[in-house]
Amino acid sequence: MATTLKDLRQGIGGLGFCADMLLTTAISGSDSTKIVDNKLVRTNDAFNYYWVAVVSGSATGDRRVIADWVQSTYTLTPDRNFTAAVSSGDGYELHRLFSPSSKDDAVNQAIREQRKWLRRVEDETITIVAGTYRYRVDNLIVGVDATLGIDDLYTKASTDTEWARVDPNLWWIEQNGAYVYLMFKSEGMPATSNTLRLQYRAYSAALSADTSTLSPDDPNLVNFIKCKAAGLLFQQKADQGEEKPNGHWQNRASEMERKAEMFYGLRTHLPPKPSQKVALW
User: Fold this and answer.
1) Are 127 and 252 in contact (CB under 8 A)?
2) Residue 167 carries which DSSP code?
3) Where in the sequence is the domain holding 75, given as residue range(s)?
4) Tens digits of residue pLDDT in 219-263
5) Chosen domain end from 203, 224, 253
6) 227 and 109 share one domain
7) What's the confidence (pLDDT) of residue 33?
8) Which stretch of DSSP H or E encloses residue 195?
9) How far apart are the first and last CA of the chain?
10) Residues 191 and 218 in one domain
């Protein structure tokens, strides 16, 4: 099962990481103005100023701050109404120390900082044009990184049933400033109107929505992200002057960083990339 942004956020909110999130469900009586949940047993106002994120049902994606909690009626009132009614059985998260958006940001920062897990990509959007020997590839749906290059290249006419491998000696990658190009020798050009299949690797992409999935979905990468993200959040607390006695936040940040480094060393290796000439202008 693919790991999503929601999975990662809930993971770092759980025990062993930030330990500040509760995942539960609404009961009957909830609507667009409130969430009712008799599984919550804290005293009046105990959940005030917590963040709530609705994760299933018509109000999925809504995030609010809790303005009031009344134990006798099991009622959470948000600082403003939800965009749709919350119904019985709808899932929601309660966050105490770090908002759901802060956790999402920390997850994506952890993804951006890692450079060892790569995802495999195939692209078939380029068509050969007569007399054109240079094709830009950094602007594909998943752009080609000049430092990673292209692993292999195939071509096929519209009438063909099989892809034919293009001799690696007849093409190369060239970088001109921010642009990356696939270059061909004149004698190595595939036929006009042929489609190209590029096989290459790319760094993990940031996750923009709860349903966005991590690639590659490697267990060690998942654990690295959770540790790294939790460490970043704890470090924010320390840097913002919210430090507790004995360096509590700094110590927790350092502990999470050490765990992240451990998982970084356990990455899954991809096979070596074929040697390829890269020209840098």
Assistant:
1) no
2) P
3) 17-97
4) 999 999 999 999 999 999 999 887 777 788 999 999 999 999 999
5) 203
6) yes
7) 98
8) strand 195-203
9) 43
10) no
Task: Please state the φ and ψ torsions of residue 160, each to the nearest 5 degrees.
Answer: -80, 155
Q: Are residues 219 and 192 in the same domain?
A: no
Q: Order of strands across the sheet with 91-95?
A: 21-25, 91-95, 51-54, 63-70, 75-78, 35-36
Contact status, residue 260 vs residue 228, Cβ threshold 8 Å: yes
d(Cα 177, Cα 167) in Å, to the nearest integer?
27
Beta strands, E only, 26-105:
35-36, 51-54, 63-70, 75-78, 91-95
Give the per-residue pLDDT at 217: 93
In this prediction, residue 275 carries a pLDDT of 42
Give residues with Cβ within 8 angstroms of 47, minimum separation 6: 40, 66, 69, 76, 94
Do 111 and 244 lie in a common domain? yes
User: Do 111 and 123 lie in a common domain?
Assistant: no
CATH number, domain with residue 21: 2.40.30
Same structural domain for residues 109 and 220?
yes
Closest CA to 90 of 47, 67, 61: 61
pLDDT per residue as tens digits for the range 201-213: 999 999 999 999 9
